[in-house]
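2024-03-11 09:14:02 INFO worker-7 job=invfold-0412 stage=load source=structure_tokens
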């Protein structure tokens, strides 16, 4: 019997699912009591781990006081104001403000709209083109789907949004040619610091600084999609820091609350802010009922407290080295074809005769959760995973290769 829950990124005909009922640290448990080391932080998001009482308490306290109100004119709420200040203080963006959404997909569409709106308000209405990279994943709303670099996710929806152009993932020369030809019409370039769902693909050396220069030279905005890389994944607060770049707009979600409550947002830099703020009569007619949701923002503030108190940025570097070394040994042994990644996000390239979904299923049998991608297996564990648990994941994936 097919259940009433229509699952995302799942065949609608599927009738059986692994039922997760509990989590603790970096472990999850199914309804039979079986324990798994979650090497994917659920879906790239559970950075501070499961069962954090301090986060649960912050949620309960805020929900009891005021679960939320709305933030449309003229209202605001303390948790949202506090979180915006904290994110602005750590973001590698010039003089930013923070716009809150409910998800990463909404954050992407918001960033696209803000980039175009800023050009419109500055009198440059011809700038509508948004450039993205092959293998990029930018959520599943209309704008993000249109910017997708994963063709399989773009098929079957009919016509997508206009004015989106894509270049090969690492080809800065192709990006340069596009700017030379259409630079006066480009509103923004959007890219993940490390491409996640497209295969865990770090940038080639110098790519991000070159992208920043192209945007500066031609008057376009640079949008960093930090939905996966943000809040410690690469050992820095945001992936843009790791590559020495200050974007104009920066999207976030996932790790900001570690998934305890849905929340996303956009860090909006000075170049984008100024034309939007220049006319007091201008009203930003964009937003969501739950923008700045008080309970979600309280959860995010608690997650930031945990990240700071437990030194999770530095921990990501140490644990990332251990995970890299363990996975590299599997490549050395010929079990997998190659390894790539950065910080605490990695992917094993599979051999041609290895089907990633089958490797995932065998890893589950051995008590580890990994994620199958196109010709690869991804690893993105909570930043609180232990060294012993990392070793268990490596052992499970070694057994799953055979």
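2024-03-11 09:14:09 INFO worker-7 stage=emit residues=402
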């Amino acid at each position: 019997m097919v259940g009433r829950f229509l699952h995302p990124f799942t065949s609608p005909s599927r009738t059986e699912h692994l039922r997760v009922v509990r989590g603790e640290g970096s472990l999850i448990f199914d309804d039979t009591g079986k324990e798994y080391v979650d090497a994917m932080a659920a879906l790239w998001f559970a950075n501070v781990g499961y069962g954090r009482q301090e986060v649960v308490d912050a949620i309960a306290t805020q929900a009891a006081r005021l679960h939320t109100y709305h933030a449309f004119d003229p209202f605001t709420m303390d948790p949202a104001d506090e979180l915006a200040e904290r994110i602005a203080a750590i973001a590698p963006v010039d003089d930013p403000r923070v716009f809150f959404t409910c998800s990463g997909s909404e954050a992407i569409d918001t960033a696209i709209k803000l980039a175009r709106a800023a050009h419109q308000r500055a009198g440059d209405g011809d700038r509508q083109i948004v450039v993205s990279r092959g293998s990029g994943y930018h959520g599943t709303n209309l704008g993000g789907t249109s910017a997708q670099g994963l063709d399989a996710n773009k098929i079957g929806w009919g016509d997508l949004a206009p004015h989106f152009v894509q270049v090969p993932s690492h080809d800065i020369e192709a990006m340069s040619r596009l700017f030379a030809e259409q630079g006066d019409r480009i509103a923004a370039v959007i890219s993940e610091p490390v491409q996640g769902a497209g295969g865990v693909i770090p940038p080639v050396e110098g790519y991000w600084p070159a992208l920043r220069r192209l945007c500066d030279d031609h008057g376009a905005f640079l949008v960093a999609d930090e939905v996966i890389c943000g809040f410690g994944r690469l050992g820095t607060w945001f992936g843009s820091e790791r590559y020495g770049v200050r974007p104009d707009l920066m999207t976030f979600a996932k790790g900001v609350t570690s998934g305890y409550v849905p929340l996303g947002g956009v860090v909006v830099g000075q170049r984008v802010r100024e034309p939007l703020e220049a006319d007091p009569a201008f009203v930003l007619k964009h937003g969501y009922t739950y923008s700045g949701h008080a309970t979600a923002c309280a959860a995010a503030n608690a997650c930031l407290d945990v990240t700071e108190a437990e030194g999770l940025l530095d921990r990501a570097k140490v644990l990332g080295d251990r995970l890299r070394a363990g996975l590299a040994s599997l490549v050395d042994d010929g079990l997998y074809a190659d390894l790539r990644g950065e910080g605490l996000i990695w992917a094993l390239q599979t051999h041609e005769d290895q089907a990633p979904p089958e490797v995932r299923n065998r890893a589950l049998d051995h008590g580890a959760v990994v994620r199958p991608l196109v010709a690869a297996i991804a690893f993105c564990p909570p930043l609180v995973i232990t060294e012993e648990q990392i070793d268990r994941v490596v052992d499970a994936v070694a057994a799953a290769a055979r």
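2024-03-11 09:14:09 INFO worker-7 stage=report msg="The mean pLDDT is 97."
2024-03-11 09:14:10 INFO worker-7 job finished
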